[in-house]
Queue: 2 jobs
Job 1
Amino acid sequence: MPVIPSVYQNFDDKMRRILYNVLSAKTILYKSNQMISYSMGKRNVIGIVEQGQVRMIRYEYTGERTILDEFDEGDIFSDMFVESDFSELSVEAITNCAVTFIDYEEMISKAESSKLALQFLNNFIHVISHTLVKRNERIELLTTRSIRNKLLAYFELQAKKSNSKTFNLNYSYTDLADYLAVDRSALMRELKYLKEEKFISDVNKKITLLY
Amino acid sequence: MPVIPSVYQNFDDKMRRILYNVLSAKTILYKSNQMISYSMGKRNVIGIVEQGQVRMIRYEYTGERTILDEFDEGDIFSDMFVESDFSELSVEAITNCAVTFIDYEEMISKAESSKLALQFLNNFIHVISHTLVKRNERIELLTTRSIRNKLLAYFELQAKKSNSKTFNLNYSYTDLADYLAVDRSALMRELKYLKEEKFISDVNKKITLLY
DNA sequence: TTTTGTCTGTTGCAATTGCAACAAAAAAAC
DNA sequence: GTTTTTTTGTTGCAATTGCAACAGACAAAA
């Protein structure tokens, strides 16, 4: 079972408080559907999702929407990880959530003198690495050559993550289509074929791989 | 003009030698087309491309090939960044090249005591961040909804990187198709249309955006 | 509790894409 | 400099996908 790294690995509450004090971290609360704007001028800022769920979304001028990434508790996001002027990106709170912001340079410079900050830095790297893994997975999904293969690859990934052939979809099909970058109705059609051909079963959002 | 981060930022040759000594780094030479196997048992190993060009490729059992990523001088790759058992991945030397391998835990633990190692760690994070940016770009390309849009998005990215409407393709069209995950002949056809409709000109691999 | 909005499920039709197959050009190997 | 391999360029045809439009289910808000 893969361990999902967290920036708080080996940290208890007290250590966390000390650390956040050392790093001058700020925690901000957002309501669901609220926009999160975190680019504070020229500084490299890191956002840590403490609670709730956050998504990075691209809106095309055509009205097309693509879910670029989803961040859950313990995930981090940062403008350091995004080329800003490629297209219109926004980060949105999906649920009510709490996000802590840290200044990157602060984190590095404090790592020299504070063991806690170095440990945090270490955790931070593991989290970025894991983010990279997620991105790679995404790329692997997107580079499969048909909707059928995209769906199966996605389902297999979910099955692997939940360690079972049966799992609950936590995307709506509308969102899944945006995530896999395909037309929703075409996705529904392919899903129907997959059910008809007994590749999967789908009892309202509970998917089972039948092979 | 965006600065591409390097793990050797602020390092001269002497510092680099000292650092590599501290970290017990090993540099290995590969001939072009040679396979690079870098997973040294259970350790987290980081490969730094010193010279030449390296690609990460997925081969499907169907014979399909997808170029997942390309690493140039100063880029890093690591098994930390890849979920190993998803599909058959290989890392291959495209040209003759030199790759330095570093043990991740070594890098972290030495950062505490060695200023040089901490600086290297800092650089390392910037490089990973940049890798993430590249992955995001890739995802943005892959999530556009047609071959035409993929091509245009790719061309625009290259134009932006070379800071000019004219630039040289360094992929063959065969490779570009594998990179954009589309059929080669379909890509050629779309390219023809783009030329006919005066969106671009293409004088043997020198592309110009005409809009 | 009604209203409003979003999500699911479906379908015909058109557009796009992939596949297969081939010839010519270019590049690499000998 | 000749041979071999790879890449480019093209096309007809079939399969897949997107688009548009709709009805019903479901959820959220008033």
Job 2
Amino acid sequence: MDNIDLETVNRVKPKMPDTTLLYELSDFFKLMGDSTRIQLLWALEENEMCVGELALLLNMTKSAVSHQLKTLRSAKLVKAQKRGKNVFYALSDHHVRTVLEMALEHVCE
Amino acid sequence: MDNIDLETVNRVKPKMPDTTLLYELSDFFKLMGDSTRIQLLWALEENEMCVGELALLLNMTKSAVSHQLKTLRSAKLVKAQKRGKNVFYALSDHHVRTVLEMALEHVCE
DNA sequence: ATTATAGTTGAACAACTGTTCAACTGTCAA
DNA sequence: TTGACAGTTGAACAGTTGTTCAACTATAAT
């Protein structure tokens, strides 16, 4: 006696995402799953800004902001450009806006 | 002497999301930021399934699956229905599919 | 050259997260 | 009623994550 429908399981199994894609997907969502990083992306959608400006805007230390920018940068979501003493950050991927808007639609209902 | 452009900061500040929305957004992304939960949602997009079937499909213990289903359920992303000895889970929000597809598009490039 | 500012870095710490394990509830069959 | 199965639950554990702190590099101004 077995309450499991093996047919269903076997039909769905090949439709599951492969491991690589799966981890890319969850890594992307993990990246967005932090309020500081969302704020950074949100702000940079308005204007490129340097670390000090972002720190002032979010009321955080430059160190904390810099750490998170590094994370976003290594995920290729933002890019950095040094000008004089400052390092200016800007969005490098305009997919970000779309995904944020989709999530907003989901959350606001 | 101050290298910060206060005008930019003051212009962007009012455009930032308020605290509540911010946390709703990041909580939603946190929810998607786990490969097990993505697999569960992905599978349930194909068919409602009971805990045992999902555990078999993902090659995990029923306990682990149950814990994650509880998380998804309290976020209203899935709903449960008891039938006999089994508890069948199904998607309760078809926004999920859209968001997953958007993220897929982002990741696959 | 010296000093001050902008930003980065790594270690440390606390908080959080996902899985496991064992004990438990509830349902069906014999 | 007894036993087996389906699922849930909470505690415990290890692994991860975000911020802080202090030390550091690099650029610009005097």
